[in-house]
Amino acid sequence: MSITSETRIEAYMSAKLTVMEQRVYDALKDGPLSVEQIMDKLGMKNRNCVAPRLTGLSKKGVVKAVGKRHNEGGKREAVWEIVT
Q1: Contact by Cβ (8 Å): 39, 48
Q2: Most buried among 2, 11, 41, 80, by the most CB within 10 A?
Q3: CATH domain 3-82 topology
């Protein structure tokens, strides 16, 4: 995919995302992350600020769960990445 196509797709997607969805999407640009990792990156303390945004982005076909990892509490959580 050319740079122009990528830029065009990114511009289209940013117009369709809420402010919080865009922040979560931008956090995932560096690679796959879990909810906890996204929270850390965005400086958030409540997972309810991030988890519903990932659900919304997933329904829009922008992100997908690609695996699981153990969080700091020892629980397994999904790892998310941008759909390419």
Answers
A1: no
A2: 80
A3: Arc Repressor Mutant, subunit A (1.10.10)
**63 close to 57: Cβ distance less than 8 angstroms:** yes
Res. 54 pLDDT band, cuts 50 70 90: very high
pLDDT in tens, 9-53: 666 566 688 999 999 999 999 999 999 999 999 999 999 999 999
The DSSP bridge pattern shows strands 76-82 and 33-34 to be antiparallel
Cα dihedral 50, 10, 82, 37, rounded to 10, equals -40
Among residues 27, 29, 33, which one has the least CA distance to residue 9?
29
Spatial CB neighbours of 50, under 8 Å, sequence gap ≥ 6: 24, 35, 38, 39, 42, 44
Of 42, 49, 53, the closest CA to residue 80 belongs to 53
